[in-house]
Amino acid sequence: MNKTIELLKNRRSYRDFDENYILPKQDLQAILDSSRQAPSWMNGQFYSIIVIQDEQIRGQLVEWNPGNPHMLKSSAFLLFVGDLHRTKMVSEAHGSVYPINESIEPILLATTDAALALENAVIAAESLGLGTVVVGSIRKHGQEISQLLGLPDSTFPLFGLSIGKPIVEMKVKPRLPEAAVVHYDRYLPYEYTVIEQYNKIMDMFGEARETKRWSQKFADYFATEPTMLTDQLLRYQNLLK
């Protein structure tokens, strides 16, 4: 099998890292360079990456997200930020209007670009024999993080990435059956039994972190009243009216 495809098919998340492992500077630079080479709509590159090295800052992130202690214990922690401030500077330099908060489209562009850069960083790190885990829960404290890191308006923290040397081996987590995800030429309906099948697969996988079946977890998640924290953050950063 092609080595790149093998790496992609065996990707998994690691949450336990060797706290004494020091990531070589050249490896970190290689990860950042690879991340920045990700695809980007119109080559806009609507994101920024903040390398969090200060232990006090990382400790504060863990205090806000106690379920993710690896943010402090990993060898490197990267924060990916949707960045529409850069193009605001461009518009001002060209004397153009910048009605950034009148549509959700710019937010989608920045989120997509940042996600692509994140995935490049994940694969680059794993190609170096390292482990990674993506942290999406930082959005719950997006406004506090924006203030802590001095993020300018028209930016918003999206997700973090812990990188380090794993000390606990993890199994490759099964994904949804192909019939529920892959379609040819048009969206093809499928029976709910496909999802029930996945519930059984995940039951057999037996991940200790999971306290609910896959379907129940998301039924409960989307039944919960939205906190609107992301909406509040985007308004605070002048990205939504």
From TrEMBL:
It holds the Pfam family Nitroreductase. Residues 8-165 form the Nitroreductase domain. The keyword Cell wall biogenesis/degradation does not apply. Keywords: Flavoprotein, FMN, NADP, Oxidoreductase. GO terms for molecular function: oxidoreductase activity. Belongs to the flavin oxidoreductase frp family. This is NADPH-dependent oxidoreductase.
